[in-house]
Amino acid sequence: MQDFSCTSLLTSAINVSRRKVQGCFSVRKPSGYWTYERCDEAAKLCVTKIEFSRRFSSAYATALKKGWLAEISNHMTPAGNRYRRYVYVIIDNENRRVYVGLTSNIKRRWYDHRISGRFDSNFTFLVISELLPALDASALEITTVEKYRNDGFTVLNKMKAGGLGGFLSAPRIWDYEACRLEAAKYRTRTEFYKGASGAVRSARKYGWLNDICTHMYTNRRFPILRVGYLNGR
Q: Rounded distance, CA 103 to CA 81, Å?
């Protein structure tokens, strides 16, 4: 089990570092600026890869291309989405009360619970699983609720355990990698804009658009000519 309070302390320390150096990354950087050391420094300011890709899009793109991403992001918490969830409990062992839930974002979910006023200082937030496929997480939530009921706990869940909300209908999350893979399906920007507007909006918003479209023709009728093409080489 992971005690979320430890994560909170780590996050607080990272936030202090962020405020000290954030100004260093706020101006558009020249070509070649993002060396391994600079990408690594930017990555250390982020808790998840999604945060890294959004706050330092050029550093993220460079690290991905150069093969550095896995190494400089190994301290990050894997981010969930509609397909992958964590299972957690909010538990009061003294009074034998428990709430069991699913989340794709541990930090945000614990914050939402705290401001709801439902849980007093006797409760502890614990993450009881790794990041799991949504259906597996749903099954674990159900069995965890039954376990605590059988142990005599009062289960505070208002909704039936195992629900995945908008699992099938929720919009896709367009992170850098998803946008890059989607863009690779198209030969021109016009086709890309028409076929994947969600990916285009995210790529434009976070500054990835030019990077993920470098393979595309500049004109639908006339593809880019290679050097020597007109000379028959």
A: 8
Per residue in 223-232, pLDDT (tens digit) is 444 444 344 4
Element (H, E) at 2: strand 2-3
Q: Which residues contact 101 (CB under 8 A, 6 or more apart)?
A: 87, 88, 89, 90, 109, 141, 157
Residue 183 has pLDDT above 50, yes or no: yes
Average pLDDT for 145-151: 93
Q: Where are the domains of the chain?
A: 2-72, 84-155, 171-224
Record the tokens describing residue 84, joined without a space.
């992958």
pLDDT for 181 = 84
Residue 92 pairs in a beta bridge with 97
Which pLDDT score, from 0 to 100, does residue 96 have?
95
**What is the SS3 assignment for 173?**
coil
Euclidean distance between CA atoms 69 and 81, whole angstroms: 20
Bridge partners for 215 per DSSP: none
DSSP string, 199-216: HHHHHHHTT-HHHHTTTS
Tell whether pTM > 0.85.
no
Determine the Cα–Cα distance for residues 76 and 131; give it in Å rounded to an integer. 13
Question: Tokens for 149?
Answer: 């009921």
Q: Is the pLDDT of residue 62 over 70?
A: yes
- Indicate the CATH number of 84-155 among 3.40.1440.10, 3.30.470.30, 3.40.50.2300, 3.40.190.10: 3.40.1440.10
Q: Per-residue pLDDT for 91 more than 80?
A: yes
Looking at the chain, the number of H-run helices and the number of E-run strands are 11, 6
